[in-house]
Specification:
The protein has 257 residues and is mostly helical. The chain has one domain (7-256). It is built from eleven helices and no strands. The longest helix is centred in the C-terminal third of the chain and has 40 residues, at 217-256. The radius of gyration is 19 Å and the shape is globular. The protein starts with 6 loop residues before the first helix and ends with a helix.
Length: 257
């Protein structure tokens, strides 16, 4: 029995196929050159600095993923159509882009120290958005596996082209892979935190460095944060669309037995 997708869902399936192809393409010449320059710069940064940044990112992500403060107060939207979930997701994305832009403008106008403070604040905004997004698509973040899914979405949005295919594979096969995960605390010990923060920094560095330039910091900060939330929104919505459509196919296959 074939899954009876609605016209809207059929449109999304086509859109998702195009998006998946883009995620799995090989890096172009400019991306390879950029990655090479970033790697050279990272090699010049003292290990002590890398460890400090890594510890900061690890602390923020762990606190967010395993604390209760970020779990939305509203219940997940169970039983609604994909179109309705998408509409709610668009509302959330519009709101969080404005929040991120305002935060970027404020820290960008405050000089280097406030510009540096923007780094952890923006991570928190992004993760809070993903928590809300999960509920828009009907997935409860009270389940730690859903919070781990958010971590994979975050990484997919802000990783180099070389890393994206493996991350996408995990996301597409989440229904089977997630059941093999150890308890949350044990899983966190397996994460390569330095690689995660380095990939994240490499993806956003150029835009965020411009934010530290006197005189244009506020404008660039707002522009950079707005754009980074847009990128996260596209990745997040597509990842949750994949799960919703897969869940529908699985449900139809089960009912046909």
């Amino acid at each position: 029995m074939e899954t009876a997708y609605t016209i809207y869902e059929q449109q999304m399936l086509k859109k998702l196929k195009r998006w998946e192809i883009r995620q799995q393409r090989t890096p172009n010449l400019m991306e390879r050159a950029s990655k090479s320059v970033q790697t050279s710069i990272n090699n010049l940064i003292p290990d002590k600095v890398h460890k400090t940044i890594t510890a900061t990112v690890k602390g923020i992500v762990q606190t967010t993923l395993f604390g209760m403060n970020y779990i939305p107060k509203n219940d997940p939207l169970y039983g609604v159509s994909l179109a309705d979930s998408d509409a709610k997701a668009e509302e959330l994305l519009s709101l969080y882009k404005k929040i991120a832009a305002a935060e970027g403008a404020g820290t960008g106008a405050g000089g280097i120290l406030l510009g540096l403070a923007d780094f952890p604040i923006l991570i928190g905004i992004k993760l809070k958005f993903l928590f809300e997004l999960a509920h828009a698509y009907g997935y409860s973040t009270k389940d730690y596996r859903e919070r781990l899914f958010i971590l994979y979405v975050f990484q997919l949005a802000f990783s180099s082209p070389n890393k994206k295919p493996d991350l996408l594979h995990t996301i597409k096969n989440w229904h089977t892979i997630s059941h093999s995960f150890p308890p949350a605390e044990d899983y966190m010990n397996q994460v390569d935190w330095q690689q995660l923060q380095q990939e994240y920094r490499d993806t956003i560095d150029f835009r965020k460095m411009l934010q530290l330039v006197p005189g244009i910091g506020a404008v660039v900060g707002a522009w950079a944060n707005f754009g980074l939330l847009e990128e996260l929104g596209v990745a997040g919505m597509n990842c949750f669309r994949l799960r919703r459509l897969h869940d529908k196919a699985e449900s139809d296959a089960f009912e046909s037995k």
